[in-house]
């Protein structure tokens, strides 16, 4: 493990990435689908994260692609994303992989809110961390 | 990786932090940490900053009341369940069930369980075609939390186990 030397002081707090948004669904009582959660972003950041093409390719088959494209476009970071995944769910082209990498890992929703698409229940995001705790009755 | 931890006392926030940070150090592409306790999360954020960790995502949630899309599976799940306190019997098994259901077919679960539950867990995993390996035997210090606990703190024998597809080798 190599400790990276940084030239500038960079905040490395936990982040709220779109990869995480793509995995979460609502656990509210009675919800049928619950995915995707609606997102309101009041503070967003973009940071450089080390690119690992193998990792990006491995994630592709686990993603719900249309939801990723939709949220990326909503946040204005979706430029260059393919509309659909190819059948093999892999890309050779590193430029495309870099764009997907950017959307999955380099966009950080620091402050905002998630919303259950069926109940409207809101979940705050603070310092990149969504609070998904439910009350007893929910 | 996914790290899911729930804190029951002062000893446990350290586990959430060190496991998440340790995972990144060992080459995990992305770590998702599901933690219910705000203090544990604060410790974790401090460690992330101190070690300049990237790609650790934190979600504040009760892992047994949290949903991930079923198609989104994890390669490694590390979990530190509460040890079945008086009103919470079976919570350790619930954690294990959540961990196993989040896993890719070739994935691995690492978990902490009271040694007293070892045989039960091995039998249960056996019936699912999964193997259990005890990687370490530890002692956890559990501070007094409830009036009915007579001692200030107790030492509990704990197994650190690995669960994966395959059958448990008898005698290991």
* Helical residue percent band of chain B: 25-40%
Give the overall shape of chain A, derived from the CA principal axes. globular
Please compute the radius of gyration of chain A using only Cα atoms: 16 Å
Q: Using only CA atoms, what is the Rg of chain B?
A: 16 Å
Number of strands of chain B: 8
Low-confidence stretches of chain B: 6-13
Numbering strands along the chain, what is their spatial order in the largest sheet of chain A? 2-3-4-5
Largest sheet of chain A: 4 strands, antiparallel
> How many helical elements of chain A?
4
Structure, explained:
The complex is a heterodimer of chains A (138) and B (172). Chain A has 138 residues and is an alpha+beta fold. Chain A contains four helices and five strands, in the order H-E-E-H-H-H-E-E-E. The N terminus of chain A is likely disordered. Chain B is α/β, with parallel strands linked by helices. Chain B is globular and about 45 Å long. About 5% of the residues of chain B have low confidence. At the A-B interface, helix 1, strand 1, helix 2 and strand 5 of A face helix 2, strand 3 and strand 4 of B. Strand 1 of chain A pairs antiparallel with strand 4 of chain B.
